[in-house]
Amino acid sequence: MGLWDRFKLIFNSKANEMLDKAEDPRQTLDYSYEKQLELLAKVRRGVADVATSRKRLELQLNSLSAQSDKLEAQARAALAGGREDLAREALTRKNDFDRNGEALGSQLATQQQVVSQLKTDLAALQSKYDSAVRNKQALITRHKAAVAQQKVAETARQLSAIDPTADLSRMEARIREEEARAQGILAVS
C-alpha cells in the first residue's frame, strides 16, 4: 500500500468518525421522514393526475357514444324519409365515431389498470411510511437511552479514577499537623 493510499484511508476513517459524531439521529430521522412525506405527496398528485386523465377519457367516450347514437338515429330517419345517401353518410360517420370510441375504450381500460396499480402502490408506500413513523419514536427513545448510558458510564469511569480516601488521608494528615502545631504553640506559651 502506497503512501497516498494510506493517507486516503486515514483521512476517510477520520472523516467518517467525525461525521458519525456530528450526526444527530433525531435530525437525520426528521429529514428522512420529511423527504418521505414529499414523495408521498408527489405520488398522490400523480395518482390524482392519472385519475383526472381517466375521467376525461370517460367523458370523451360518453360523448362519442352519444354522437354515435345520434348519427344512428339520423341514419334511420334518413332511410325512413327515403334518403339513402344521407343514411349512408350518417352511418359512415357513425362508424368513424365507433372506431374512435373503441380506441378510447382501450385507452380507458389501460388507464383504469394504471390508476388501480398506482393506488395499490400508494397504499403500500403509506403503510411503509406509517410504520416508519411508529419506529421513529422507538429509535429516538433508544438513542436518548444510549446517550444517557454513555454519560453515566463516563461519569462512573471518572469517579473510579478518583480515590476519595486519598483526599481524606491527606486532609486528615493536614489536620493532625495543624493540631500538633496548635498544641506546640500552647505548650510554648
List keywords for this structure.
mainly alpha, 189 residues
Global mean pLDDT:
84
* Form type: rod-shaped
Give start-end ranges of low-pLDDT stretches. none
Distance between the termini: 82 Å
Query: How large a portion of the residues is in β-strands, by DSSP E?
Result: under 5%
Q: Biggest β-sheet: count, sense, barrel? A: none
Class inferred from helices and paired strands: mainly alpha
Rg result: 42 Å
Element-by-element helix/strand order: HHHH
- What's the total number of strands? 0
Tally the helices.
Answer: 4
Helix content: over 70%
Could you characterize what this model shows?
This protein has 4 helices and no strands. It is mainly alpha-helical and 189 residues long. The longest helix is centred in the middle third of the chain and has 78 residues, at 84-161. It is rod-shaped and about 155 Å long.
